[in-house]
Automatic annotation (TrEMBL):
Residues 220-254, 293-327, 401-431, 485-519 form a coiled coil. InterPro entries: PIBF1 (IPR026205). Keywords: Coiled coil. GO terms for biological process: cilium assembly. This is GRIP domain-containing protein. Residues 587-601 have a biased composition (Basic and acidic residues). One of its GO terms (cellular component) is microtubule organizing center. Residues 587-616 are annotated as: Disordered.
């Protein structure tokens, strides 16, 4: 039992070091960001589960030490036959077939001892035939129960023989009885007495063995229950790990989107690069807002210049109207004086004509003035709408800038938290390995090199690592980054296609807006413009119809010419066919080399024409 206690203390030292490291590792400041917190909690729980598995291994070692102590105790207090049987059958408590066989043997031995204790000593538990069969077998091949039955049968048989001798002998005196007892002290009787003492010891240890078996059963049940709980916890941890991985992937996607937006904003800025991300964002938004404000101000300046021009035209028309009214008043006064001076004289025709022309000019000036006023009102309305749009656009840009700043702050905070968590994890793993190596004594290092390797590398009994190393975790992170890069590339392609579709839709909307604006500008023009537009349209339609008729005539002529050419071709083919029929020996001229000579004179044959046509 001292050996088991020492082994327990030595095995629990790495556990205490790991608990101290995990107690010193604080992640309370990570609760603000749910995605990063879940990843940190998952890694922390994985470390705790790994340490629990390490504790299970230590408990198994303790149970093995206890079994060894029980085996040593039995070897010290039990005879050689039972000692050999127990040393051959008592093994570490492991869930295997040998352990089950040992448990069944213990149950049989317990029931047999209970039966022997309840019966009389003069009765045997086996027959003579069974005794002879067991006697003929090898003692190393017999089980513990068979050996106990064999020794018990021999003891009972010797006791019966002794009782039979005593009962058949005559009564003796004290000296004779002493002489008889002295004669009975033979080696066989001494062996029987030793066997009886061994049997009494076995009966005394029966309860102890039963208690130990029940205790081992209870420990086995507790270990199985703990293993089931550990399995359930591992399944829960795997589920939480999967959910945490999904959340981390979503966070990485959001971070990648923010980085892409940041790169776009950096490409928009033409000045020197700002110091922080927020300054990048502000510079890009300010440049965009300044550009839009410059465009709107140009439009406002154009509207103002147009308004000033219309005002000048209005003032000019008002001055002209005033001058015409003064001229009309002077003409009327002159006419009154003339009519007053020359009574009975006919009115002056020239004065009336001048008055009529002045009135006509006055009405035209009034109409021009009214048109100018209407144009001034229209330009004023456009100016107000442009100012309102400028203010709304400025407000929207400010809201967007504030939202992007908030998102950027959250993303930067998450990134810093993740980097801090990663650095702390690396530091905790390295410190844990170093402390476990330092806590091992030189004697332990020399005596238990496998234990040193197991504790120093945090490896389990199968050789696999309980905690991930830096290299494996970096490799896994690189694989995750490559997968996320592929997903982001796929998302980029989809966004690019959506952008192209939106550009096409925008172009269509621009064309529709242009058409509507042309239509509205046409509606605002006077009726005479519409009449002239209709006349020009009718003239264009008439020209198109005339061109269409000309093209139809040309096409008809071309069709007739094509028909004539086809007829001529058919006639020529028929003529050639008849010539070949009349002169069959001319078909081999192609094989003669002189036939392909360029200086050869052409063959002139008067071929009869079947069809004679003339192209139009």
């Amino acid at each position: 039992m001292d050996c088991s206690n020492s082994l327990t203390n030595e095995d629990l030292e790495p556990k205490q070091n790991a608990d101290n490291i995990l107690a010193s590792y604080d992640v309370s400041d990570l609760t603000e960001n749910s995605d990063v917190d879940s990843v940190g909690k998952l890694k922390h729980e994985i470390q705790l589960l790994s340490i629990k598995v390490f504790e299970k291994d230590i408990e198994l070692k303790n149970m093995r030490a206890e079994a060894a102590a029980h085996r040593q105790y039995l070897s010290e207090h039990v005879g050689s036959p039972i000692k050999s049987e127990l040393s051959a059958n008592v093994k570490p408590l492991v869930p295997d077939p040998e352990h089950e066989v040992l448990r069944l043997e213990g149950e049989k031995l317990r029931r047999f001892l209970m039966e022997v204790g309840s019966e009389e000593n003069s009765k045997s538990s086996i027959t003579q035939t069974e005794y002879e069969f067991l006697k003929s077998q090898d003692g190393s091949q017999l089980s513990l129960v068979d050996l106990v039955k064999l020794r018990l049968f021999e003891s009972v048989k010797r006791t019966q023989q002794r009782n039979h001798v005593i009962s058949n002998s005559p009564p003796m005196t004290m000296d004779a009885e002493a002489q008889t007892k002295a004669n009975l002290k033979t080696p066989a009787n001494e062996d029987c007495a030793a066997l009886e003492r061994q049997l009494s010891l076995v009966k005394q240890n029966n309860d102890y063995l039963c208690k130990q078996v029940s205790l081992l059963k209870s420990k086995l049940e507790v270990c199985e229950q703990r293993s089931r709980e550990t399995t359930e916890e591992l399944q829960k941890a795997e589920a939480e790990r999967a959910s945490a991985v999904e959340r981390s992937v979503a966070a990485e996607k959001l971070q990648q989107i923010l980085q892409d937006q940041l790169k776009q904003l950096q490409s928009f800025s033409s000045t020197a690069l700002p110091v922080t991300f927020i300054e990048h964002l502000r510079a890009a938004s300010d440049s965009r807002r300044d550009h839009e404000e410059v465009n709107l101000r140009r439009e406002v300046d154009a509207l103002r210049s147009e308004r000033d021009t219309l005002k000048r035209r209005l003032e000019t028309s008002e001055l002209e109207t005033k001058r015409l009214r003064d001229d009309l008043t002077s003409v009327r006064l002159t006419n009154d004086r003339l009519t007053a001076g020359v009574s009975g004289r006919q009115p002056d025709v020239f004065a009336k004509t001048q008055i009529f022309s002045l009135e006509t000019q006055l009405s035209a000036a009034c109409a021009a003035r009214n048109d100018a006023l209407r144009q001034v009102e229209r330009v004023t309305e456009k100016f107000e709408l442009a100012s309102k749009a400028l203010y709304e656009l400025d407000a929207e840009r400010k809201v967007q800038v504030s939202q992007l700043e908030a998102k950027l702050e959250v993303a930067s905070h998450k990134l810093s938290t993740y980097e801090r968590l990663e650095a702390e994890l690396d530091k905790a793993i390295e410190n844990c390995a170093e402390r476990c190596y330092e806590d091992m004594l030189p004697s332990d290092v020399l005596e238990q090199p496998a234990m040193l390797l197991q504790v120093g590398n945090f490896s389990n009994s199968s050789g696999g690592p309980l905690l991930p190393t830096l290299a494996s975790r970096r490799l896994e992170h690189c694989i995750q980054l490559s997968r996320r890069l592929a997903e982001s590339e796929k998302a980029r392609l989809s966004l690019k296609s959506e952008n192209d579709d939106m550009k096409k839709e925008l172009q269509a909307v621009k064309e529709e807006a242009k058409r509507i604006s042309d239509h509205l500008s046409t509606i605002e023009k006077p009726t005479s413009y519409l009449a002239s537009a209709l006349v020009s349209r009718d003239s264009r339609i008439a020209e198109l119809l005339l061109d269409k008729r000309k093209l139809e005539v040309k096409m008809r002529r071309l069709y007739d010419c094509t028909k004539d050419l086809l007829a001529e071709r058919k006639a020529m083919l028929a003529d050639l066919h008849e010539v070949f029929k009349q002169h069959p020996h001319d078909r081999i001229v192609d094989k003669d080399p002189a036939y392909h000579d360029e200086n050869r004179p052409p063959v002139k044959l008067n071929l009869p024409r079947k069809v004679s046509g003339q192209a139009h």
